[in-house]
Amino acid sequence: MSDAKLFTPARAGAIELKNRVVMAPLTRNRARAEDDAPFELHAEYYGQRADAGLIITEASQISPQGKGYAWTPGIYSDAQIEGWKKVTDAVHDKGGRIVIQLWHVGRISHPVLQPEGQDPVAPSAIAANSKSFDGTQFVDTPTPRALSVEEIPGIVADYRKAAENARKAGFDGIEVHAANGYLIDQFLRDGSNKREDHYGGSVENRARFLKEVMDAVVDVWGAGRVGVRLSPFSSANDIVDSSPQETFSHVVNLLNGYDLAYLHLVEGQTGGPRDIPEGGDLAALYALFDGTTMGNNGYDRQTAIDAVHNEAIDLVAFGRPFISNPDLVDRLAKDAEWNELDPDTLYGGGTKGYTDYPTLGQSQVAAE
Ligand code: 8OZ
């Protein structure tokens, strides 16, 4: 066993965590096809991982328009709320904590995934060189339609409604997905936001949409149960910014105005190298933030222990390791081996590669 600080309790705003190991948000594309609702299968999967100090759910669309891939779950309908209630009950029954990640994909979608086959929406009519998945194949993301200024309050209202639904579903809080080149990130960056109204131009203006979303969801939950995920130096989904350090210094300062549960940063390229481009300074962004910090991307046991011990960050979010190791916290504490990840069952499907990864105890029984 280990007495490392990584395994000690922590607070994220108003949320009490039994340890500092977080399950990162992970898209798995297994929602029910007819209504994008999670169901018993999801309750089992998340329940198996309840030893995490905190679980962040897979990104969940706040509206039909916010969807960009087949079989991702939503949090806008009664059926979806009912499905998520099964999930939160399963996690709480095992003493875990769980927040839902609220998502609008913006331009990272395709008409076949959009209501009435409409074009996806974005701050500006600029296509991303990216792909969405329509249920059969990967498809190029088309040129989106620029949102009119009159439409923006409606999307903010969808975030508010989703936050209210998350309360009804029994979550411990929410995480606002402002990372990885999706709608909020598209507003923040000057490569995807060429608007000439008060949502574009200066960094203050580009951050206005995020601020309006934060005001709405904090009003529903209280700031101490709201976290935010950013990926300042990632180019995921073809996102481009001429000066990310400046953009995200402004964003972190803005977030300091709320007293949030936590700030969650993807370190480097989402799911890829941890390198930070010339002129980027992740430590400076963490230092600028007044509250609990969470880091993610490619941590292993030792780097996680060290990062928390050295107070570089307060919490470490593990993604892929949590897919193949439901008992990751136990394995980390014991310095035990990790199960190998099956890349073929990451997105879509059923129990295989989802709820059938063994715990240490189950592997030992099987080996006897
Ligand atoms: C993998 C596949 C599809 C979406 C993200 C929500 O990158 C995602 C995502 C990841 O934030």
Structural features:
eight-stranded parallel barrel; 368 residues; binds 2-Phenylacrylic acid; alpha/beta; TIM Barrel; 12 helices; globular; two-stranded antiparallel ribbon; 15% strand
Kindly summarize this structure in a few lines.
The chain is built from twelve helices and 14 strands. It is α/β, with parallel strands linked by helices and 368 residues long.
Please give a structural write-up.
- The protein has helices at residues 40-48, 78-93, 152-168, 183-188, 203-206, 208-221, 244-256, 282-288, 301-309, 320-324, 328-334, 360-367; strands at 10-12, 15-17, 21-23, 54-61, 98-103, 121-122, 131-133, 138-140, 145-146, 173-177, 226-230, 262-266, 293-296, 315-318.
- With 368 residues, the chain is an alpha/beta fold.
- It has a single domain (5-367), classed as Alpha-Beta Barrel (TIM Barrel).
- The strands form four sheets. An eight-stranded parallel β-barrel has the order 3-4-5-10-11-12-13-14, surrounded by four helices. A two-stranded antiparallel sheet has the order 1-2.
- The chain is globular and about 65 Å long.
- The protein binds 2-Phenylacrylic acid.
- The site of 2-Phenylacrylic acid (8OZ) has 7 residues, from loops.
- 2-Phenylacrylic acid binds at residues 27, 59, 69, 179-180, 236, 270.
Low-pLDDT residue spans: none
Number of strands: 14
Strand order of the largest sheet: 3-4-5-10-11-12-13-14
Instruction: Determine the N-to-C terminus distance.
Output: 23 Å
Task: State the helical fraction.
Answer: 25-40%
CATH architecture name: Alpha-Beta Barrel
Number of domains: 1
Q: What string gives the helices and strands in order? A: EEEHEHEEEEEHEHHHEHEHEHEHHH
Please give the oligomerization state of what you see: single chain
Q: What is the CATH domain class? A: Alpha Beta
Strand content: 15-25%
Could you name the CATH homologous superfamily? Aldolase class I
Tally of alpha and pi helices: 12
Nearest-integer average pLDDT? 98
